[in-house]
Input
Amino acid sequence: MVPAWLWLLCLPVLKALPEAQPAELYVEVPENYGGNFPLYLTKLPLPHEEVEGHIVLSGDSGVAGRSPFTVDPESGFLLVTRALDREEQAQYQLQVTLETDDGRALWGPHPVLVHVKDENDQVPHFSQATYRVQLSQGTRPGIPFLFLEASDGDEPGTTNSDLRFHILSQAPPQPSPDMFHLEPRLGALALSPKGNTSLDHALAGPYQLLVQVKDMGDQASGHQATATIDISVVESTWLPLEPIHLAENLEVPYPHHISQVHWSGGDVHYQMKSQPPGPFDVDAEGNLYVTRKLDQEAQAEYLLQVQAQNSHGEDYTEPLELHVVVMDENDNAPVCPPHGPPVIIPELSPPGTEVTRLSAEDADAPGSPNSHIVYRLLSPDPEERAEGKAFELDPTSGSVTLGAVPLQAGQNILLQVLAIDLAGAEGGLRSTCEVAVTIKDVNDHAPEFTTSHIGPVSLPEDVQPGTLVATLMATDADLEPAFRLMDFAIETGDTEGIFCLDWEADSGHVQLRLHKNLSYEAAPSHKVVVVVRSVEELVGPGPGPGATATVTVLVERVIPAPKLDQESYEASVPVSIPAGSLLLTIQPSDPMSRPLRFSLVNDSEGWLCIKEVSGEVHTAQSLQGALPGDTYTVLVEAQDADEPRLSTSATLMIHFLKAPPVPALTLAPVPSRHLCTPRQDHGIIVSWPSEDPDLTSGPSPYSFSLGPNPTVQRDWRLQPLNGSHAYLTLALHWVEPREHAVPVVVSHNTQRWQLLVRVIVCRCNVEGQCMRKVGRMKGMPTKLSAVGILVGTLAAIGFFLILIFTHLALVRKKDLDQPADSVPLKAAV
Ligand SMILES: *[C@@H]1O[C@H](CO)[C@@H](O)[C@H](O)[C@H]1NC(C)=O
Ligand SMILES: *[C@@H]1O[C@H](CO)[C@@H](O)[C@H](O)[C@H]1NC(C)=O
Ligand SMILES: *[C@@H]1O[C@H](CO)[C@@H](O)[C@H](O)[C@H]1NC(C)=O
Ligand SMILES: *[C@@H]1O[C@H](CO)[C@@H](O)[C@H](O)[C@H]1NC(C)=O
Output
């Protein structure tokens, strides 16, 4: 009978495992079994064949020390010998072994787990018999402010230990009997919605709640326990906080206490959030701390939210807000605007032109003195000078404007401006801001010549077109290369276009060149006015007088050097040639050329002379010392009559010949002439009476000389006149008055002839003429004696004259009536 229900009661679980590793045997035993003992639990899976040995049970012997388990050796059943208490021991771990008598294991050890199955034999217990809790006004309904704790000894997880909490009663039941809500499973006590409203209105006194805890879950049966909760309602201390002002960079030990919050309700945990996240913290007592230095510039304000939470992290009420204002400290110097490219200001900009407007930034609190910046000009030296300042600075706005002092083009100026906060007060932080300013050039300078007058430049007429006349230089005070470009032009003085200009765009040099031929006759001088202008449009006043330059050009007349008709001249003369004989005539090659002046350069013997104008070369004297066969060379120089520096020369070679035999002198029938004595300034022109005009006018002249008779040479003098005539005068002061036959040798080339010039020498009258005609004599003597002498003399002369006249009347009667000195005697050979 027993094994039958035992099989029903026990649920032996045999796990089919390989025999090498025997599966654990699991057996459950009901707690507090009230039946008979021993209680058969399960048949052990011993080997089927009978083996000699005995079964040994070992393992967990239980709390009591003596194992409640045994094995029936007969049946091989596991037995429990007494009632088990799960709360005492819930499980037993056993091993079954079949051993021989000498302790050798024949089977096993086989594990057996015995589980004591729970019975609801334990009563739940509150952790405290009485709970005291403070409930702050303002606690939100539904937020637990007390968590009840209760325990049950029965097996956890089973209904035997499944506890439920209930409010059994509330005292006082005013203003509402169910002001509180107890969450059954958690035991979380919170205000009910009704309680929320009531709590605010009536300052309710303390409440007492009787609460129950019961096991077996929601089943009606079960064990239960009760406890009381004393709730004292306290005034809320969760009050809004004044904003906190905290200085930045505060030098204090950190964390630094800044404020405190307090939730008057019990079991509070404070949490804090910072918006934006900041270095703030709250401790368990609700003390608020700042954990490190604050930086106003990084964050000027924080909003802290402090939460009062229960142990489950639920807010009892709205978070408390705390404004933290970081107070500014003047810890930031003004920051200059970044360096930009230089500010370009055109030259000649009027005073007041804004150069730049500085705006330094100050990170300190805006609107506070800490960020109130004023400006001060450091450089250029703002000291007021006589002519004013170059720059003006408005201290408030930072606007830099041009002052009265003009700035030069090309200047690069570094403006240095001090920016000071605290409105420039003592202790203000300062920064030096720099602004580069470049003065841009404008075309305000007209180009000018460095010299206003050039020359006079002398140019020969024959210079080639293209010849450089003068180089003019101009300068431009502007800086910009484009403004320095110049244009040149001839303004006046060149209507004919004789000159031209030649320049390179950016050189500043201009060359005045000849464009056409010069002509002295057309214009012996030129005054060329060259003007220079800026290519770009000029700003400001127009060009001054320096924009023109005058070049004076003088044209030099060019006279060709004289040229003779031969390069050298030769003449052959007999050594006996008389003085004054024409040898030859040196002539210019072009008869129309300018007049020349001839001279002999090295006539060392003095034999020759040359006519300065005509170029006729004569023998100056008889060629004493010249030997036939010799050659005498002299240099003839011909100079331009107006320009003596222009000259040429040629050699003149005289070949001396043997003197030809003097031909028989032929007394040519030459009419006699009259000369009076003592000697007067009269003479007789002797000529070569030739019928051939070519001979007389030819280039080779005739020369005249007196015959060799010494008396003749003493009494007479013969001077050559030209190539065909000579002049015969008395050589002595007194020559006997009578008829003289003067022999004159005429030579032409190698030919010689002799003339006999018949001269009647008479006494001179007071007029210096021959007293030939008695009738013409003016009566002079008054005395009879004188008259007698005169008559006698006149009778003698008259008689003498009659003799001559009658002799000559046959030859040439008419000549007697002609003037004695004016008519040349013609002689026929
Ligand atoms: C609790 O009471 C306050 C003030 O009377 C009210 O503003 C709030 O809405 C109430 N809460 C609930 C959940 O009724
Ligand atoms: C300029 O002079 C040169 C010689 O001096 C001559 O050959 C040329 O023809 C002249 N030109 C003019 C345009 O008269
Ligand atoms: C004169 O000068 C020329 C050239 O120099 C020379 O040949 C000649 O012999 C000179 N005559 C005399 C007389 O010195
Ligand atoms: C030479 O002089 C005479 C007298 O003066 C003159 O009549 C004659 O024409 C002249 N002959 C020459 C070639 O000059």
